[in-house]
Every structure is written in structure tokens, then in C-alpha cells.
Amino acid sequence: MAVLSLQLDRDQKQVSVCCDGADSHSFALADIVLSKEQAEQFISDPSNYGQRLYAALFAVDSRAADALAPGQELYLHLASELLNDIPWEYAFDGRHWIAAEYGLARTTAAQMQPDAPKTTIPERLRFLFIPSDPLLHNGQPVPYHLGLEDEWEDLVRDLRALDPAVDLIRVTPPTHEQFQESVAGMEAGIVHFTGHGAAQDGKAWLMFEQPCG
Which segments within 111-212 are labelled E, that is strand? Predict the structure, then answer.
């Protein structure tokens, strides 16, 4: 499968984009910064911000836009931790979510260092599905529940049809302890968390279950 590699470097208020090692274009950091109001809108409908992300990555008439083609995988090399905080997986071209259409992987500044440890990808990857849908949060019923069984059946069906070198594993019970045990020794793989989140003290949290649910 063909790979399209984009490297993003931040210089103060500008971000430069290289496409497969060659200069492509640049954009202003302000183009991808969200105000508080925009962040709230993003939660209910991420498509508008997704189009801003797409425009930043694939500016009109840029080398990156010309190189994007069906059947590719997209690699983002992010030379700034601030850029790593951006939810690039929501990039949206107006019709398709880029991560779903092409597949998207990212590397961070630390991983790009010459002395960064190299990871050997095994012949088969583990795909951990973590379906966390707690009955209570802070002693109160959660406002809604997730369609976890439907998502699990979709994953099973799609992976059977594609037959990739992937072993699908459902982490049960979806507790933090069981998650730690499941990823122990896993050098490469996919961790797919479907669940609720919470915010506290200015930080975002993933909500795992207790053994009792």
C-alpha cells in the first residue's frame, strides 16, 4: 500500500508542511486553534473544525494536495508537542473523514529523534477493543449508554471480510487493571477505546469500569 508522509514543523506562529520530504506549503497556527465557543461546537459537530484541519494539511494547489490519492496510508510526523495535541484524526474534506478513508498514523517529536528506540512490528498485530460503558459516574446514572454490541459486531464483520494480520481481542472486564494487563509486553498494535470521558481540574479523563460494571 502506498504511503503519503507529511511532516509538520512549527516556527512560532507558522506551521510548515513537507510532503514526502519536499516542501509543500505553510499555514498559520491560528488556523487550527479553537476558541472556547468553537470547542463546544466541535463536541456536537466536529465537521466544521475537521474541514479547517483538512485545509491546513492539504492547502489548495499544494504538493500535499496533489499527492493525496485513493488507496494511500497517511503518516503525520509532528515535530512539535503542541501539534501533537491537535486532533488531526478529525480532518474532513467535506465528504470523507480522512482517517477513515485513508488510514492515519502519527509520530511525535520524541519518536523522530535519531536515537529514538526502534520498534519491530510483529507479523501479526493485536487489536484491543475496550468497551467501557459504566452504569454510574460519581454515584449517578450516566446520561446515555453506548451501542457497544453493535460496534463489536461491526468490527468482527469488517475484520473477517478484510482478513488482515490482526488478532481482535475484547478486553473484559473493561477495567483499568485489565487494560494494563492486556497491553503488557505489546510493542506494536491497536488500542481502540469506546467509552465515556470526564473533565476534572482542567484535565480530560477516560472512564473505565469497575469489575461490577
Answer: 125-131, 136-137, 140-141, 166-170, 189-194, 197-200, 203-206
